[in-house]
Design a protein that fits this description.
4 copies of one chain form a homotetramer. The first copy, chain A, has 2 domains: 78 residues, Alpha-Beta Plaits (2-Layer Sandwich), CATH 3.30.70; 195 residues, Formyl transferase, N-terminal domain (Rossmann fold), CATH 3.40.50.170. Chain A is 33% helix and 29% strand. In chain A, the strands form 3 sheets. In chain A, strands 5, 6, 7, 8, 9, 10, 11 and 12 form an 8-stranded mixed beta sheet that branches. Chain A has a 4-stranded antiparallel beta sheet with strand order 2-3-1-4, covered by helices on one side. In chain A, helix 1 runs antiparallel to helix 2 and helix 7 packs across helix 8. The longest helix of chain A has 24 residues. The model of chain A has no long low-confidence stretch (mean pLDDT 94). Chains B and C meet through helix 3 and helix 8 of B and helix 3 and helix 8 of C.
């Protein structure tokens, strides 16, 4: 019995037989399902499934792919198959705030987030020491209105050269161009420091203070071309009261941002996320 | 030693001596402070205080008022003094949804909310049986675009005749006129079924569904002339995920709305709330 | 296409093919799966599955049962099949505290909890009016050390006569005999007003006060012969602080108890719960 | 107007005049109260107060102390006075798990926790690199049953030599001797990875798994001679379900432990904690 686990994800229009298309084949081929989640979206008439499995005997990946493709075509499925221990290459982008970066690096170096980090990119030099200590290349790419196009080209080159699977905006305080957003669609995660859709845009903690809210939160979402409007992956929250000045909300928010962003990254690398319409299906898990 | 407790609230511009203005007099007059909360708002330069006390010996209310008024004038304080067991007269307005009404009535009849309810007003007849069982007069005042002015006049008459201290909009699905809002300013509490400022206006649970939020909540706020923009008193929240259809969000939200609204009403009748600028200072408590 | 949904639950020792045993047959027989949850317990080597489905055409229940029984025998499955709108008969037992009863009755009369309540049993007469208003028979069965055996016999008769599927101890302040617990095993739910396993036994809020805990909670669990040790179904919690006296913890706890117990009852009637070893598998849902 | 803030804490038996004893003198001496919290414990008949203030003009600390001592003697008060920016010397003790240490060091190096860390002590060598990167002396003091007395003597010497104000057990997996506990009474904080009083002792996450709890948490408490029974400072919690194996509970618990311990340390250094009887009074704040 193999210890290597695999993850199969698929989605397609709702129709009879979608579950069996996956589970039936896994059974026929002697794959032992260790975790199975599915969702049939009644309103959008779309079906999503994620199966984690381990072969009972040897596993012929190509044969499995060929067999599954037949079924996928029948049902109009888009699908992915990959080993569960596949290490995603994650490029992290930051500015000056280091709490999210520090948190991600801690989870990285302790193996809680089993990823590779080929590059940290920043428009400021401040966080280089932290990158150095983790032996991660740090690219300081300053940006101004005039240099924005060139800077983004440089960023894009690093992302391409490092073959990044995912880009994480860990409090990167620059608005990406529409072109850049489009190129990163579905593989860039941002942390916004408010409970979206409340308090979009700049200085959300100050907005929250003015409004006198009694809860403060953070939202991890996929980047799309609509600022702070990308599909929501996960949100965190804590209660506050009138005694919180904007700097207190900011401090309280830091812990929420760290945990929320780390959770979103983990969901992504564990292939628990499906983008559909403007929403994000999340097959959450233990943790 | 008296068992009768009193509640003193005061607020004024920030300045040296504001705490002592309250605590010093209470001490001099032999009042035993059982609970004291204060807040000096550094950004708005305003001071708020609430003291609950019981007289060690007899209590001459008028003498206390006269003595405190001297201090209040010195500091420019607005203040209130009342026995802690004062029963507020609360008029409840509803439409067809009964969960908030049912919850308030339960707390009323068991004494958890020590209030009087002189009237329940509705634009629908549906909830009369519930009011009847609690022996509370139920006023069915239907409303149309044409009759709105007259209906509000009728509502206002009931509020006045019953000498209501507070009006609670317990899922009353009509927008009050600007005039009505102004008249009720500072003594009407609404429950909105979203985490304001997200999802203002109609059908917030449907908006939340479309947006794919991962948290759903409710907001109790004072009514003002700006729809769903009144000062926030308290908010409640629960996690949700992609499997929640709008009707599931609605069902989940019901429990949150009940608890959130009841808490706001309790805060008000315990004189824990101060309106200032667009924000609400909340001296919350055990419970 | 039928609108009638069915629920199939099954569990058996872990082995290859357990998922397919369910999903394969459903597919072959033209059943459309609307919700599917499964769990393969790696440590206890046991598999659990719950499928909600609706027939695409007519549904021959007996034929389906016969076909599934063949598979069930092969895998050693225990299983149940029932229409999703099956109305459980729920007997509620109470003493003097009415908050949980009031909450359950509210959900009952509004259809949120689609159950029948053939009887409310109490060792006190206090809550009869509440039962009467809902047109539910109220049995006042006082209990003393001497009459306990007879009282339980009377209780048991009511349970049997009403063909109760579930007994809910909604703050019933009597310890059931070991014999009674055994008879009710797997179909009686109790609400305990603490976060078990902390503060078992009497007066848990007072114990919590003495201990100075900063969180207070409630636990809904199946009744078994070990007092307050039955498998945990769900737990609720709220933050507290040093200002909470025992009566404040009690008041705070009431809302938690209501929501927690109602959730546990709903899980049970929706067939989301599996008892295994000392633990309870909970296929939770939207809500 | 001075920018230097001071913190005054005091407690004494409940009696008339305790608030005024503090607030009256502050007013007379021209001290501007920026934050005031008090609690009169009705059941234990004890009074607690914490005032943060800044002098309007120059501040003669000794004169203030002399004046306050007169009042303190009258009321039987124990009290402390210190500048709000006083840097506590905090010795951290760890074993092999580094998540709490990493979190504390992050808050330390970014100034979120304004403390000095004169020493990190461990019974293992593993975490030396982390200490080195922060330029903090790391003392590797292995321990066995035979060497326990000597090891504790060495630990004690480091604590004394560094003039530590506080000792933080950041997942130090050794039980301190009764003597050591006594010496550290009131100035040592431990993080226990369960919701005390549930799951005392070893392997609490495994105990929680066996019990099938639906919430997992952590408890920061003062160390006393009764293992895992010291006064609770603060607790954190997250929901879990049946899919969490012990290692998943452990992973989930890590984030809770970090935040909970850091909060307890901050409360301590901000002089927000009072030990009384077996309970801990916590004047919590914004954050």
């Amino acid at each position: 019995m193999s210890e290597q686990h695999w993850i199969l994800t698929a989605h397609c229009p709702s129709q009879l037989g979608t579950v069996d298309a996956v589970t039936g084949l896994l059974y026929q081929q002697g794959q032992y399902i260790t975790d199975l989640q599915s969702f049939d979206d009644r309103l959008h008439q779309h079906f999503f499934i994620r199966a984690q499995f381990r072969p009972e005997n040897e596993f012929d990946e190509q044969a499995f792919r060929d067999a599954f493709q037949v079924r996928a075509e029948k049902y109009g499925m888009e699908w992915t198959l990959s080993p569960s221990d596949l290490k995603y290459k994650v490029v992290i982008m930051v500015s000056k705030f280091d709490h999210c970066l520090n948190d991600l690096l801690y989870r990285y170096r302790t193996g809680q987030l089993p990823i590779e980090i080929p590059a940290i990119i920043s428009n400021h030099p401040d966080l280089k020491a932290l990158a150095d200590w983790h032996n991660i290349p740090y690219y300081h790419l300053p940006i101004t209105a005039e240099t924005k196009a060139q800077q983004e080209a440089d960023v894009w080159k690093i992302i391409c050269d490092s073959q990044a699977d995912l880009v994480v905006l860990a409090r990167y305080m620059q608005v990406l161009s529409e072109d850049m957003c489009a190129k990163l669609s579905g593989r860039a995660i941002n942390i916004h420091h408010s409970l979206l859709p409340g308090f979009k845009g700049a200085r959300p903690y100050h907005q929250a203070y003015e409004k006198g809210v009694k809860l403060v939160g953070a939202t991890a979402h996929y980047v799309n071309t609509d600022l702070d409007e990308g599909p929501i992956i996960t949100q965190g929250i804590e209660p506050v009261d009138h005694t919180y000045y904007p700097e207190d909300l900011t401090a309280k928010g830091r812990d929420i941002e760290c945990v929320t962003l780390a959770r979103a990254v983990r969901y992504h690398i564990e292939r628990r996320l499906f983008l559909h319409s403007k929403r994000c299906i999340v097959f959450a898990d233990s943790q």
